[in-house]
Design brief:
alpha/beta, 4-stranded mixed β-sheet
Amino acid sequence: MSNTQITRPLFDQVMVPNYAPLAMIPVRGEGSRVWDQEDNEYLDLTGGIAVNALGHAHPELVDVLTQQAKKLWHVSNIYTNEPALTLAQKLVANTFAEKVFFANSGAEANEAALKLARRFAFDNYSKEKTEIIAFYQGFHGRTFFTVTAGGQPAYSDGFGPKPADITHIEYNDLESLAKTISDKTCAVILEPLQGEGGVLPIDKAFAQGVRELCDKHHALMIFDEVQTGMGRTGELFAYMGLGITPDVVTSAKSLGAGFPIAAMLTLTKFADSLTVGTHGTTFGGNPLACAVANKAFDLINTPQMLQGVKDKEILLRDLLAEINNEFAVFKEVRGAGLLLGAVLNEQYKDRAKEFFLASAEQGLLVLVAGANVIRFAPALNISHEQIRLAMVKFKQAVKLVTEQ
């Protein structure tokens, strides 16, 4: 049993009310299982919103964190450190990138990417080359710059004047991009799969068209892989399956498998614009975070793990199809790898939260992506047996909602 004085009502007393957490309070986890204060067990298909790529309390991650904690916790960027350089070396060796910038969150990685694009254009083209093109329903973080770049005004309205020269267009609409982009555009930022925007995957032809238009207008193609990176789609990074190479890729979430860390990956010719003093972070490249991320990288970046993600996607899709054959609640299941979204049909439109709550009552943790999509983002190493058990629980949750 956990501390009985720590209860859900305490949240409302002491925390800023920008979240509305469930009544249950998780206190420990192991792999894809979580236990609450009353020792109730749950199967976790949220992965901490696509963060816990190797589940909870992975023994090898616990070990490397413990070992690093006995050495260096923090040194700031007055110095470099061995775990950070080792991780950067792995990222460069396994991606298109030649240079890495470490931060603490996806928002910070995207902030760095957008600042890089503006600075590179300023240094090499014109001070008027400032436009950033982004996409409706996109999500790039909660700093004011990144939340404005995200295409969901409800997240950015009400905070005063927004950063200028950000243009939004429809996702997967190449014709619209061709009409909008110009030589004043410094960057196009997009996700290879819009996670928060409804688990909407990119069209391969669209991705290739974006690459061509960015080349034509000397604009940086920024791929926000905060949610898709590090094996989530069955590739180390999703761009690898699209036949294109971005100019910048951002990563976070699964990069540290639960420990806060982020990275911006780019080429030397772009990175050279961020000279000493132009950008920085106190905690970025923290030795503890980088030590954990190093081990997570080694565990994730294997043919067995990445192929396993693709195999588990097939299993999860098949089981969701069986549920849908019986209850007819989904219009489609979309996404890639272990980032899937079950889109509710017209009969159950905007009722995703009901399925979310019913699942928790059955001992299953899932996510939503807006009011109309139930999102699944389990640990990459979840077992086939746990997926089957999770879908038994989810089927019962669906039954309860449909019988209301």
